[in-house]
Design goal:
By secondary structure, the chain is mainly α. It contains 27 helices and 2 strands. The protein is globular. It is found in: Membrane.
């Protein structure tokens, strides 16, 4: 019994439970990959190989036993330092006490002073309610709008697929309209207007103009909807010469009917990604009018690989306004994602993804609850946000306290994004749609700037890859000219990411820092290629680890600037680290601890390679 429970717990934390995309090559249908795993002779056919590039396991070597000893000391110390300055016995406690609220865990207060975190935490019961109600309503919809098939017709036949698409899309559009009204009230009309304008750009303008017009329109909306506070009705009426008082009163009344989320524009940036996805997928569809790629490649439309689901255009008739509206306002993913492309959404509405299995969805749900519990634990025992909001005298804190408070602030940012992303994805899985997982690794399990970008907000990374990075030509550092163009490409990607998050100079600085920190890593890859060190794998591993320690310090600095307090916070952090012997001693100890942690990160990835999994992050 004990072994069975332990096995179940381990299965909850398997990569396959998190997202089958992590264990199945994107070019291989999940059904084929699953069959290949059960058949050793079919592994090559399924696109799987058992760790050809992997090194021998180091988990039981003397080197790693030494690392375990470091972990036994470093991990408790990292938790203890922020906890100690969060206790009532700390002399600075009265300065930030007012930012704390009553908690429920072991008599502790809880730090929900971050407004975004407080909103997310307060809305979790509502999300669970919708998670139950929306799938149940879909079942009721199916009773009143059943798919009618001819006797003997297969459920995977083209007619059955069209019937399923019609059934799902009609409900998604209906429920989306209700959701839009409930969440945004009269502002739903603004969203509908923006969707209509974007649709006209895709379907009315000449093909060559569509990409440019799409980007200009959506970037304009990104900037102006925040500058003009969500386009208030009264602002527009004031532009009308001699507008009657009755019209001004009506505009004021409409501005007051804002629904449950009165600031609709704060979360609309995620919808803008779907608007761009639809327009560019539509434009690329018009380039392929010579025949169906599925027929050309002789693919099974009921068992497509993820790459084919994303890259294969839907039939032109599927790019209707209703389908577009249903996709843009799809309830489980509307507020925060993860991001699903239009092609993928239509494909999964036609044929249910084979990766959606009851046992996997249940395990994923348990994992969501465990993440929620982890966030609650951190908020009850680490008051970093309250300390920051109280505008403390940072000189009264030791370098260790400043560094570890900053470190945990990044973890709280990670958790406040992870919780809603996981919950919304869980809702989509329950509803029969499998979007990409957004967070592959813990924020602490990253040593590469490039890899960190691939694993953090992964669906957004894949979106920028498809719609910005690849269309701009990708990267190539073989010549000086191509290197300069590649840097411009990276800047374009990350400046869009910064503007997408918020129109804020601090975030633009973050985007420039991220690109600047890419360059040493890329240069190191060219200066120290793995092939030249094949005879000295241990020396190469140690060299890479030293570089990775520098990478981690740069990533922490960049994210403190972008999301953890700005340039001033980063300056306070580094000034503290070089302030006297204690700061330098802590920095030295931190580098040693990071070195050990990164060696473990290397081995985690080698363990994945031994299973035939290469996540490239």
């Amino acid at each position: 019994m004990g072994g069975g429970i332990l096995g179940f717990v381990r299965s909850i934390y398997q990569l396959d439970t998190l997202d089958t995309r992590f264990t199945t090559p994107s070019s291989v249908p999940y059904k084929l990959a699953a069959e290949a795993r059960n058949d050793p002779h079919g592994a090559q056919e399924g696109g799987l190989s058992k760790g050809k590039k992997a090194e021998r396991s180091k988990w039981s070597t003397p080197e790693f036993y030494l690392y375990y000893l470091v972990f036994l000391v470093a991990i408790p110390y990292m938790f203890w330092v922020p906890f100690e300055v969060s206790r009532e016995s700390d002399p600075r406690y009265p300065k930030f006490q007012r930012y704390l609220s009553d908690g429920w865990m072991l008599g502790r207060k809880v730090d929900v002073s971050d407004s975004q975190l407080r909103t997310i935490r307060g809305k979790i019961p509502h999300i669970f309610g919708l998670l139950v109600v929306q799938p149940l309503l879909r079942r009721v919809w199916k009773l009143f709008k059943p798919t009618r098939l001819e006797p003997g017709a297969s459920e995977t036949s083209p007619r059955a697929a069209e019937a399923r698409l019609e059934q799902r899309i009609s409900f998604d559009a209906f429920f989306g309209a209700i959701l839009l009204t409930a969440l945004h009230g009269t502002s739903g009309l603004k969203i509908l207007g923006l969707l209509w304008l974007n649709y006209q750009i895709a379907t009315r303008l000449p093909r060559k103009v569509v990409p440019w017009a799409t980007w200009i329109f959506n970037l304009y909306i990104l900037v102006t909807m925040k500058v003009y506070d969500g386009y208030r009705f009264k602002t527009f009426v004031n532009l009308i010469p001699f507008a009657p008082d009755s019209l001004l009163d009506l505009a004021s009344w409409m501005d007051s009917q804002q629904g449950l989320l009165n600031r609709w524009h704060i979360l609309f940036n995620i919808t803008i990604l779907r608007l761009i996805s639809f327009n560019l997928d539509y434009a690329w569809m018009t380039d392929r009018q010579s025949g169906s790629p599925i027929e050309k490649k002789q693919l099974d439309p009921a068992s497509l690989s993820e790459r084919d689901r994303v890259g294969t255009p839907a039939p032109k008739s599927n790019y209707s306004f209703r389908n577009y509206f249903a996709y843009a306002i799809y309830a489980p993913l509307y507020l925060a994602g993860p991001i699903l492309t239009f092609n993928d959404y239509i494909s999964q509405c036609r044929y249910k993804s084979a990766s959606i299995e009851l046992s996997r969805t249940v395990k994923y749900g348990i994992r969501c609850l465990l993440v929620l519990l982890a966030m609650e634990f951190v908020l009850h025992f680490n008051y970093v946000n309250a300390i920051s909001n109280a505008r403390p005298d940072w000189s009264s804190y030791t370098p260790a306290q400043i560094a570890l408070l900053s470190f945990f602030k990044l973890h709280i940012i990670w958790l406040k994004l992870l919780v809603p992303w996981r919950l919304f994805r869980f809702w989509a899985l329950v509803d029969g749609i499998d979007p990409p997982e957004n967070m592959l690794r813990c924020v602490s399990d990253n040593y590469s700037t490039l890899s960190f970008w691939r694993s953090w907000h992964r669906s957004f990374y894949r979106w920028t890859l498809r719609y910005i990075y690849i269309p701009l030509g990708g990267s190539n550092f073989r010549t000086l000219v191509s290197s300069a163009y590649s840097i411009i490409t990276y800047l374009a990607v990350f400046m869009f990411v910064a503007i997408w998050h918020d129109v804020d100079f601090q975030l633009l600085v973050w985007s420039w820092l991220i690109v600047a920190f890419f360059l040493p890593e890329i240069a190191a890859g060219y200066l120290f290629p793995r092939k030249k060190w094949e005879g000295r794998p241990t020396a190469y591993r140690m060299l890479c680890c030293v570089g990775a320690v520098g990478n981690v310090l740069m990533m922490i600095s960049a994210n403190v600037v972008g999301f953890g307090g700005g340039v001033d916070a980063m300056k306070a952090l580094w000034e503290g680290l070089f302030r006297g012997l204690s700061g330098i001693s802590f920095l030295t100890g931190s580098c040693i601890a990071l070195f050990v942690g990164i060696q473990v990160m290397f081995e985690i990835r080698q363990s994945e390679l031994r299973k035939g999994i290469n996540l490239k992050c």
